[in-house]
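Teaching soon. Invent one.


***
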Amino acid sequence: MAKLLLIEDEPDQSKMIKIRLETRGYQVITAHKAEDGIKLAQEEKPDLILLDIMLPGGGGEGFFENLKKSYNTMLIPVIFISAKFSPKELEEKADQLGAEGAIPKPFEPEELIAKVREILGE
């Protein structure tokens, strides 16, 4: 069973995404702030991170940069999720920063599952 770390500051979004992924057999750990996400990524070593790139205070991009600088977490794939950018802008940001994928909000649950499976090679 793959372990996923979801970093999403909106509690309702976080709960919905967590439920959708758990019903597909994934173990999901959640954080609502970048600082908590870094700690969990270091401790839990998830197989994949779903990151809301627009966390309060610009924490999403900073989190991603810190994640990729750390020897313990640099190889964990990341999917950006965000409502702030257009699909094209979000994809460009993911490419620019080096994330493995991007999904704009709102998204269909099946789109999320397909992207997770693709990144995990399932």
